Amino acid sequence: MVQTPTEESAPLPKVPIPTLERLTTYLRCLVDLGASDVHTISSAQIEQYTSISAAQFRKDLSYFGEFGKPGVGYQVAELEARIARILQIHKLQPILLIGAGNLGMALAAYPGLTEHKFRIVALFDSDPNKIGKRVHGMDIIDFNRMGEINIALQAQMAILAVPTSAAQAAADCAIQSGVRALLNFAPTALKVPPGVVVRHVSFLQELAVLSYHLTETEKRGQ
Amino acid sequence: MVQTPTEESAPLPKVPIPTLERLTTYLRCLVDLGASDVHTISSAQIEQYTSISAAQFRKDLSYFGEFGKPGVGYQVAELEARIARILQIHKLQPILLIGAGNLGMALAAYPGLTEHKFRIVALFDSDPNKIGKRVHGMDIIDFNRMGEINIALQAQMAILAVPTSAAQAAADCAIQSGVRALLNFAPTALKVPPGVVVRHVSFLQELAVLSYHLTETEKRGQ
């Protein structure tokens, strides 16, 4: 069953989820600006780059203390480092990828993962025809060896890119292997113990939202 | 640049995006219940099935008028039909899929699309080695023929499963071909004219949110 992530994730965060999502947008913008040798930036410029309002930007940052100086703006490098630290992506975050089908392969090759210090450190599948094959510099490992393998890797995050029917078993196996955060691509809810957080990536939800907008814009004659 | 969808989509919806997203969860639940011969359901049962609170469920429905009867609950089939109508997924919604790489292939095979009456009606790519090949019952069509092909198909939605460097060109081409709603998988912002809506599927945002939660639960000693 498709499920909104916030209700499933325990415990509830103090910071709103949309704020955390926008932080990644600011971070991306700051990385780009830093690469273009821009050293300071105003909230108005952030708005120009990200299409997120200057007021929203300041409100989002306010959850995490004082940032920037009135009349001067924000130091690009400092703000980038602080946001990365807030999101805990200032250090390398190892991830187990479960499922070596089309989606798994697409994720393994997805640009931007390494840019944000996410690194897929192992790739698992249950298909004997896939196990042992090498893709994107990684061997496809037998699903049943996840616990053993993760003793060395110590990954706390896993991406589930498996069919719906296999999602709960994959989640259980990952959790038993020490994983405490799951990104689930299967359109199904997962039962997880307290302290384990789940986020869903649902194309269906996004398509339904687009479908609604299409009708709304039609009604308004646009 | 990764960008939150709400800021980019114009015009702003009257109904909150999270409400629309949760509607798809309720819908999925109702479809499952209907298949199990359940005919009426209470908001408390919806909470049990979806992990979304009964109060939130009633609030979400309140945007769209009167639903259910006090003390009786909701007719499963009627509620299902009404939500599908709200999301405009009670009728078939044709979709153009742009990009026949791993991600495009995963999307073409994604379960649940047809269940929600989304149908991928054409698959495009720019790679001469892919054009003309047949996958999932569809021929991969030359990207440059999109306008011509969509005269017959009349699709208003497109999914962009292309590399970042190709995303804007793919969006432009889709819009010129009559598309007014885009689901973008590339981690980049798109410039679109008024009346065209864009939603982004960003794995990076989800991973960053998980990363934050991991740290929070560590702090609380869970």
Structural commentary:
- The structure is a homodimer of 222-residue chains.
- By secondary structure, chain A is α/β, with parallel strands linked by helices.
- Chain A has two domains: 70 residues, Arc Repressor Mutant, subunit A (Orthogonal Bundle); 113 residues, NAD(P)-binding Rossmann-like Domain (Rossmann fold, 3-Layer(aba) Sandwich).
- Chain A contains nine helices and nine strands.
- Chain A has a seven-stranded mixed beta sheet with strand order 5-6-4-3-7-8-9, with helices on both faces. In chain A, strands 1-2 form a two-stranded antiparallel sheet.
- In chain A, strand 3, helix 6 and strand 4 form a beta-alpha-beta unit.
- The longest helix of chain A is centred in the first third of the chain and has 19 residues.
- The radius of gyration of chain A is 20 Å and the shape is globular.
- The two termini of chain A are 34 Å apart.
- The N terminus of chain A is likely disordered.
- At the A-B interface, helix 1, helix 2, helix 6, strand 8 and helix 9 of A face helix 1, helix 2, helix 6, strand 8 and helix 9 of B.
